[in-house]
Amino acid sequence: MATAAATAPVAATSETRHAARAAGLLAATGFVTGLSNFAFNVVVARTGGVGAFGGTAALLSLVTIAGFVASGVQYAMARRAATWDGAPRALLRTSLPLMWPWMLCVVAACASVRQLAAYLGVDTAPALLVIALFVAVLAAALPGGVLIGRRRFGLIAGLSLVGVAIRLCGGALLTRRMDATAGALLASFVPAALSVAVFLVFALRIGSTRHAEARSAGEMSAGFTTESFTGALISAALWALWVMPMVFARHLLSAQASGRFAAAQVLASGVLFVTAPVATAFYPTVARHREWRAVLVGASATAGLAGAASLGMAVLGPSLMGGVYGAGFAVSGRILLELGLSAATVSLATYAVWISRAMRSHAVPVAAAVGIAALVQVLVGVALPGNLEVLAALPCISLVLAALCVAPAAAMRRTARRPVVVLLGADEA
User: Fold this and answer.
1) Side-chain-facing half-sphere of 198: CA atoms under 13 Å
2) pLDDT tens across 350-378, in order?
3) What is the model's pTM?
């Protein structure tokens, strides 16, 4: 036992270094993914025009929200795969029946598809494609979580690059042969559906480790539904905070103004693509060892990448918007700077959410912060409709205000025996 206790810090340090290297690999993959997403949206915008792009971008953002919802399932599975030494196929078998809340969500989405399409001013068929995409992304979450938990980061990076290539090529082809919105969503669905089969094949090939595992797969799956549902709701709410200004713009502004704002926010979303993999890389190490050194290294990497990406977007963005999208999509550098700051804030909040989940921290402070931020956005969106500068800075303003409200209450819960590092109100359980 003494030997195990002595080697645990060494193992944690080694895994932290491995996580840092994996973060670099996945961040590079995220950068390529962000560029591909930007190019994909340029193709869609040029094909459909500035008037239609607002609705298209809103639907694509809903697809991204579906991905964040599925990440709740993915990270819940990743924590179990990282902390359990048995064969992952047993975890997949016992966790699958626990997915029932998400099936109810699919049914509810299908029942309200006409209302969603009417609100966004699009046809029903693209809204149905969004639901199909949600099902595909959700189905890939379980085997994808196994790959994250067992640190198959090279495989994840390779499969991600293949997926973005298929999406980009499909978007260039399909948007010219059918309605641009439907073509964009169909091009997004194909690689998502393929990833289900590919992730499952590789996850099932992973065997148990050499260490003895006393806990059964059923014991490890206990609490899976609650953990995945809580994480998914918080994560989806965070992304909703990011896209809510776009929805406000689509509903309150002219088609041209909302299209320009949507294109600028799509560009700023590249910051999120670059920084999100850092949490993925550090998640298994934090879940397995629960050491704050790994948490702080990952937080520093997230802040550094977000700051650099935001600065680059603010400097290069104005020329990209007018030169790549077209003259009708030009926006001011101030709007892009505010969007960059908002994207950096959402990136840090997202990292805080998933690392707090890995640490088995209380979800209430984080959920309270997200809820307060959502309330701030709704109040500001109603009080100041049509102000693009306010809409661009709204995610940053709302999250900072929410953190200031929640952090003092979370800090009061600290005790001498339970140290805490406050990351948007996340304290150690």
Assistant:
1) 14
2) 898 888 888 877 767 887 888 888 888 88
3) 0.73
